Amino acid sequence: MDGMTVPEIEAKAVPDDVFLLDVREPDEWQAGHAPTAVHIPLGSLQQRVDEVPAGVPVYVVCRVGGRSANAAAWLNHVGREAINVGGGMRSWAAAGRPMVAENGGQPFVA
């Protein structure tokens, strides 16, 4: 997938009420994620692609933006409309966007 350009948006500019796909590993997800995000680890994405809606923009996020760029490129390749969240959850947290942790503790991005 090298050479494919992927649409990208800054974390602070991601609209509310969009389909936000978090492709990080379970431990990263549990530590802190956007409250409305859907969690499908990158390694499971091909098997679970039917859970990703078609016909609406899908915003893809990881920790710093690399895995989500790969996921977005693949999703676009298979007919979804995917946009990478540049800077990932680190930028999301830095922008003061809402986050929750699975354990009820203080959310953080490892």
From TrEMBL:
Q: Which Pfam families match?
A: Rhodanese
Q: Taking every annotated instance into account, which residue ranges of this chain make up the domain Rhodanese? A: 14-101
Q: Which domain of life is it from?
A: Bacteria
PANTHER family, per the entry: FAD-DEPENDENT OXIDOREDUCTASE, PYRIDINE NUCLEOTIDE-DISULPHIDE OXIDOREDUCTASE
Under which name does UniProt file this protein? Rhodanese-like domain-containing protein
Give the originating organism: Sphaerisporangium flaviroseum
Taxon lineage: Bacteria, Bacillati, Actinomycetota, Actinomycetes, Streptosporangiales
